[in-house]
Amino acid sequence: MNKRKELRLERSNLKKLKIKEEEDNFKIGLKRCTKCKELKPLEQFTKFVKSKDGLYRLCKECKYKIFKKWYTKDPEIRKKKRSKYCSENRDRVNATCLKWRKNNPEKYIFNTFKSRLKIKYKLTVEQVNEMLKKQNNKCPICNRSFDIIKKTVDHNHLNEKIRSILCHQCNSGLGFFDDNIERLNNAINYLNFHSNSQ
What is the spatial distance between Cα 155 and Cα 153, in angstroms, rounded to a whole number? Predict the structure, then answer.
């Protein structure tokens, strides 16, 4: 037998041994990551329908590192690709989004709130939580707890500066009075006058 055939046979045997080892490991709940070469529990791998064992070849940690590197490499190119894909597959994207929203209503509400904070007010959820902590989780105007009422971010419409977290009613009230102190005082005087006249 020549050297080539010997090498081929050796490689084939090694491959069979490797497959056998992988199968044995899988039976006891372990899998080897192809990146870090470590044996890890099956929970450390994401699902992947196209693979034989139904799991991705990289562990979550290695996959995250690669994804993070790719994600931060060139955000502009990524945005263009995503935009192009979304415009070409509008129906598919919408159907996927609607299905996710239906299956994850709490996450959808939270993510919408988080996005709105970031886009409109340039705030993070952590910053809002810190503000709520300072306010004892209550509206500073009506003193009602945010556990039972809807909360909104109050900001100055002239300079866009964030003032506080208010309940929806109090924030709307200030908005209807255009943040005008004179008009608010007139409203107080009006209410006092009519409450005394009864």
Answer: 6
Q: How far is CA 33 from CA 47, 59, 134, in A?
A: 14, 5, 46
Residue 152: in which H helix or E strand, if any? strand 151-155
The rounded percent of the chain whose pLDDT value lies above 70 is: 95
Mean pLDDT of 31-52: 88
CA distance 83 to 95: 16
Q: 141-154 pLDDT, tens per residue?
A: 999 998 888 888 99
User: How do beta strands 45-47 and 39-41 pair?
Assistant: unpaired
CA–CA separation, 145 and 132 (whole Å):
10
Distance CA 181, CA 82 (A): 47
Average pLDDT score, the chain: 86
> What residue ranges of the chain are covered by domains with CATH 3.40.1800.10?
123-197
**Topology annotation, domain 123-197:** His-Me finger endonuclease fold (3.40.1800)
